[in-house]
Design goal:
61% helix, 359 residues, globular, mainly alpha
Length: 359
């Protein structure tokens, strides 16, 4: 998933390190008997560098993929859904580490503060982390069953293909969109054993990811009005598609026996029910989160506003996932997904995370 949202973002501050009065004057000779060994980074500094490399606050956008996939498949989340979430988290973080390893030469020029070019994380360590996390993601998917592994394998392949080959090509945004769609299908396959019912939700989530990734390609240079304006239009269309039609969940074994508004359906024709209201509210939350920064970037496509647009698009992933679950007739799952948004904000406000961007 590269960043299964917009993996090429680069805003983050350097971790602070303590020094001594003598360190402020590098020309001063060391005191007699003093050690002259290089100062090693503290444990907290190393943890901060890895948090920055892996963009930990962005992890809260990942579990909703599998949960929305389970809802779209008409199944209740269970143990296999949890395994799918674990697999998604591992593959997402593998993409983050691999992304920065692949971009280390470019980052040395454009983003020298990043963990690898600044020397806080060795390239070999980042690559090893990407390999280990990929292996762990595939193992967790295998534990969830063969259908889940059948989806996780191409998902892992799309992550590596994007970071190593496709990122700077016209196929880059499409590859990232495919990865996010596959991540939703992973939850469906793990929970229900099939993916067909979840294909429409995967297409909608992939379209959102396509728009965010297209904007992210100009976040360091700015100057593109087309990408944020297209993303703004995409947000409007997705909001209409998600909130305009809600599929009602039917009792097990009755999917083919009834449809909304027909005999056997739990939903009566007429006024919108609570599920419709919830879907519309979550769709509005999605639009509000994504549309405003896209609009500002359209008016002024400077790097800071483009970066804010990318961050807004990533944050909007959670209400979109929740709206997709509500649209599938799973209100409890949709509320669980929606709760990840405030939880992510609280995590990001922690002292250790304040300098770690989600993009």
């Amino acid at each position: 998933m590269g960043a299964s949202g917009a993996p090429t973002g680069r805003r983050a501050g350097l971790a602070a390190s303590a020094g001594t009065d003598r360190a402020a004057d590098p020309a001063a000779p060391p005191a007699e008997g003093a050690r002259t060994d290089p100062v090693r980074p503290t444990r907290s500094a190393r943890a901060g560098a890895w948090a920055e490399l892996l963009r930990l606050p962005a992890l809260f956008t990942v579990p909703g993929d599998a949960l929305a996939g389970a809802a779209a498949a008409g199944a209740r989340p269970g143990r296999r859904t949890l395994l799918a979430i674990g697999s998604s988290l591992c593959l997402y973080e593998a993409g983050m580490a691999l992304n920065d390893w692949a971009d280390r030469a470019e980052d040395a020029v454009e983003r020298p503060h990043r963990p690898i070019p600044s020397g806080r994380i060795r390239p070999a360590a980042a690559l090893a982390a990407a390999c280990g996390l990929t292996g762990a993601g595939l193992a967790l998917a295998a534990a969830a069953g063969r259908p889940a592994l059948a989806v996780a394998a191409p998902l892992a392949g799309s992550v590596w293909a994007y970071d190593l080959f496709l990122k700077h090509t016209p196929a880059g945004p499409a590859a990232m969109a495919a990865a996010r769609g596959l991540d939703l299908l992973l939850g469906a396959a793990a929970t229900s054993g099939g993916t067909r019912a979840a294909l429409p939700s995967a297409a909608l989530l992939g379209s959102h990811t396509l728009a965010v990734t297209a904007v992210s390609r100009r976040e360091t240079t700015g100057g593109s009005v087309l990408a944020p304006s297209a993303a703004l239009a995409t947000t409007g269309v997705l909001t209409r598609l998600v909130a305009g039609h809600r599929r009602t969940r039917l009792p097990a074994g009755r999917w083919a026996a009834a449809a909304p508004g027909l005999s056997g359906s739990k939903r009566a024709a007429g006024a919108p029910d609570a599920g419709d209201v919830l879907t519309a509210a979550l769709g509005a939350a999605y639009a509000a989160t994504a549309a405003r920064p896209y609009f500002h970037a359209t008016l002024n496509p400077s790097p800071p506003l483009t970066q804010r647009a990318v961050g807004g698009g990533i944050r909007a992933t959670i209400p979109l996932q929740a709206a997709l679950a509500a649209r599938a007739g799973a209100p409890a799952t949709s509320l669980l997904i929606a709760a990840l948004a405030p939880a992510g904000r609280m995590f990001a406000r922690r002292a250790a995370m304040r300098k770690v961007s989600i993009t």
